[in-house]
Amino acid sequence: MASTRFSPPRIGSKTVRRADLLTHLERMRHATLALVTGSAGYGKTTLLAQWRERCVKAGADVAWLSLSADEADYAAFCATLFMAMQRVGLRAEPELLFEDANPAGMDALVAMLVDGVLDLSKDIYVFIDDYHLVDAPPVHRFMQKLLDQAPGTLHVVIASRVAPPLALSRLRMTNQLAELDSTALPFGMAETRSFVEENLGTGTLHADDLRLIQDVTGGWPSCVQLIVIMLKNRPASLGTLRDLAWRHGDLQTYLSEEVMANLPAELVAFAGALSLFRRFSAPLARHVTGNANAGDLLKRMEDENLLINRIDCDERLAWYRFHPLFGDFLAARLVAADPSGAQGFHLRASRWFAEHGYLAEAVRHASAGGDHEFAATVIESAEPATWSLEYLSPMLHLLERLPEATLVQHQRLLFIACLTVALTTRPGKAAAWLTRLESGDITRDRALTTCIPLIHAAIAFQNDDTPRMLDLLEPLRDVSIDNPFLRYLLAAELCVAYAAAGRYADARRQLDLRPVPPADRDNDMALVVESARVAALLGEGDVREAERLGTPLLARSVNAVGRHSISANICASVLVDAYYELDRIDDARETIANRPGLLRASGPDITIRASLCRARLDLLQVSASVALSFLEGQTAHLHNAGQPRAVAYMLAEQINILMLEGNTARAAELDVLLGELARSHDADQGIRAEIAAVAALARARVLRATQPERALDALCFVKARAEALGRGRLVVLACFLSASVFVELGRVDEAKPLVVQAGEHGARLGLVRTFIDERATTAALFERALAEKWLDDAAAGYVVGLLEKCADSAGFVVANRSSPTRCSGSGSGSGQGQPALTLREREILTLVAQAMSNKRIALALNITLETVKWNLRNVFAKLGVSSRYDAMLWARKNELIE
Known about the structure:
By secondary structure, this protein is mainly alpha-helical. It contains 46 helices and ten strands.
């Protein structure tokens, strides 16, 4: 027999180490059985090989057995198992017992194996890969007896695509069973990033692309590998990832050969029909396919890990879904082979969903089946108590196909349509339809007539018209609304309007007065209310509290209603801002990655927060030119969308970057544009009053070097406007910049109280990047404040921490070992004409010189692996080298490291 059958596959240097899974297995090293089950391509064999390597290093004796179809019967299996164990010293000679599958012969064989293990001095680990190939009941009985009688030094590790038919309850109860199933095996985001970067190179793909790969594959290891191969051969194919299932021949071949090849025709046809649905259950499957054995077939698919997951979303009924790529693959095959049959499945499903109260899915499948009239009837006949944000997506698809004459004939449908487009950044269309609605007979439905102002308020929100929102909503503040969806919508809109106007106490009261009951904890509109409250905290400047409440709320929103839901998008936009402000750069980048809706199809505040953070992350981690290019594109998009406040923020951020880069001429040009925009909105109230403040801040940056007195006037205006609107971070920044100008003018006494105010408020709010991003100004002003004791002990401690972070920032270099000064650019020299390296970059170079890997450097400095790689990229760029070795030689030659 080939010796490779008794050796694990080689672990390549570019294989992802499954650290979390290995840690779980390590904790269960004492267990009699470790069972790893999952679909094809989920890395079971690689995981076992990695754990085997650890066991060997720990001093255990390890036997490995890769099964094939030849070991399907009892005698062949037992013979191969004993051959594997003889390689680690087992001295049994049981050949005569292999053919005896009777209980007595099986007992004798088990006893011989157990006695042989007891004669060995070490723990014995027996790894059995591909156990799903075994289909002989005697083999399972033999393994059951072995597990029941195994001594404490014998540990069996099994990898299988299906759960083996073994009675494992006793092992579970005695903590002798370690289990990993298909829910634990997919790559996490960090593992996907690591695998891609190991194979394609660090920095080859943007964080958005990495997140897209994770979202498309769901962490399916083999699929991630196929994508890497595809991108190596055809880098331009990155843009087709969302169509991967039917565009990539290798994936189709893999699914056909590894997943579908051995399935019976009945199961293949059954799975194909269900692939059209985002989720499915046994009753739905019976109705759609007409197969009376639907429940048994679903159970078989689940037992065999047919890329299917159970969704625990309904206590009364078990729901399932396919892995998205597998579902897309099956659906594409079905539609290509039988388009009319696929349409029939959609129509039957729409009736079943409607009858059972799943209205969003009923509308979705009626539209897909071409029955738009039924879809309209379903929505119009729905009880208002069942309305939810789930309607938005199927409603938009329906509205694209439904004649407007039909829409106008259904008044309740028209009401929902107006609400849908008002909530999805199409205020113009919403206003036009609302006029038709108000001229119709909607007045017969008094419950909906009362709530028409909510649609007007949603339109006003998209137009940044805070005064109109308050005029519309405050009369409804004490009105009793039975419909929970509209009741939560009112609370969310009031919260947003009050926060926009700087009335934060009133915003907080919305949840205090109308707390979300436990039963509605995962209601999508209730989650929006909670998200709006967290956004209000951020607007007020309380970054720490926004992060504390927003982090679990985002996780809950993603789990309950999806990663791209409205509540998840609001939370993500809050958290990317909060993480950035708290200097948690990797967390910020991860939060915003592959969320294009935040930048292009969200409300004004969400778009502004996400866009500014995206640009600032690009400035930190990529380059000023990339950040400016992104901002220019956003400026054009938001101008065309009629969002003047958002345009003001984009222009102001460009001015800030241009001033940092020394391009004062272009900054002045944009300042003129921004000034014209501000003058045209000079009388605006509510949230649009920010436009003048944003323009004044940009003007102060442009004038600071040449006309400091005018800069002070502009900053004074910024501070007053920010205080009136309750924008805490803007108040702190205006104080801080004003103080720095006063110091430069020699008016130190006027600067001191402003520095104290900035320091105390910054400490209370948890601000970090607000100061760090001002670069040299922060170091110069705060170092003087500390030296001359302007601050009390609490504020001084906070400032010391800020200065330490400043020294690590990419905006600073270390001129000597104690004094941080401004870096004039990534390629600028120090006084000796050398490239300027930050303190963090020097630390990393020193550890590189000690031959440490990136992972060890991350552990040693208590930073993320991504931060190490990013700093090394900066070092390579500054030094003009392409390798760690060349960077180390340069640093030693120039006496930067020993």
